[in-house]
Design a protein that fits this description.
With 165 residues, the chain is an alpha+beta fold. Helix content is 49%, strand content 23%. A hairpin with a 4-residue loop joins strand 1 and strand 2 (130-136). The protein is rod-shaped. It starts with a helix and ends with a strand.
Length: 165
C-alpha cells in the first residue's frame, strides 16, 4: 500500500509541477504579447509625433511671410506734442470736430433727399498727415481718405480719395 501511496503522491507532484509549468508558460506568453503591444504603441506614438512636427513645420512655412503684428494706427506721443506746438491741444478730438463741421468736403450727392455728413465714430486719425473718415446720408455710406495740415491752430483739409460702399 505504501508503494501505491508513494506512486500516487509522486504522480500528484508531477501533475502539480506540470500545471505550474503550464501556468508559467501561459504567463510568459501573455507577458510577451503585452510587451510586443507596448513596443507597437510606442512606434505609433513616435510616428504620430513625427506627423505632428511635419504639420507644424508646414504651417510655419505658410505663415512665415505674414505680418507678425498689426500696423500701428494713430498719433504717436511725439506727433501729439508737435501738434500741440502748432496750436491744437487735443489733436484727435479737434481734428474730428473740424471734419464734422465740414460736410462740404463730401463730393458725393445724397440719395432720396438726405444730407451727407461725417459719422462721428467713423473718423480715424491714421497719423500726423492722414485721416480715414466714414460718411453717409442715412441711405448710402462711403469712406474718404483725407490729408490735413495744421498751422496756428487751424486745420486745412484735402480729399485724397473717396468712394461709396
Amino acid at each position: 500500500m505504501m508503494a501505491e501511496e508513494q506512486a500516487s503522491t509522486e504522480g500528484l507532484k508531477f501533475t502539480e509541477r506540470l500545471a505550474w509549468l503550464g501556468f508559467m508558460l501561459f504567463f510568459v506568453v501573455v507577458l510577451a504579447i503585452y510587451v510586443a503591444r507596448g513596443i507597437g504603441l510606442e512606434r505609433d506614438v513616435a510616428e504620430a509625433n513625427r506627423e505632428l512636427l511635419d504639420a507644424q513645420m508646414q504651417l510655419a512655412q505658410y505663415t512665415q511671410h505674414e505680418v507678425p503684428r498689426p500696423a500701428e494706427v494713430g498719433l504717436t506721443n511725439a506727433q501729439v506734442q508737435a501738434m500741440q506746438r502748432r496750436g491744437i491741444a487735443r489733436p484727435e478730438l479737434q481734428l474730428a470736430r473740424s471734419l464734422l463741421e465740414q460736410p462740404e468736403l463730401i463730393s458725393h450727392a445724397p440719395v432720396l433727399g438726405g444730407q451727407m455728413y461725417f459719422v462721428p465714430d467713423g473718423i480715424h486719425v491714421l497719423n500726423d498727415r492722414w485721416v480715414l473718415a466714414t460718411f453717409e446720408d442715412g441711405h448710402v455710406r462711403g469712406q474718404m481718405l483725407l490729408e490735413y495740415d495744421v498751422a496756428h491752430g487751424n486745420v486745412t483739409w484735402q480729399v485724397l480719395e473717396s468712394y461709396l460702399e
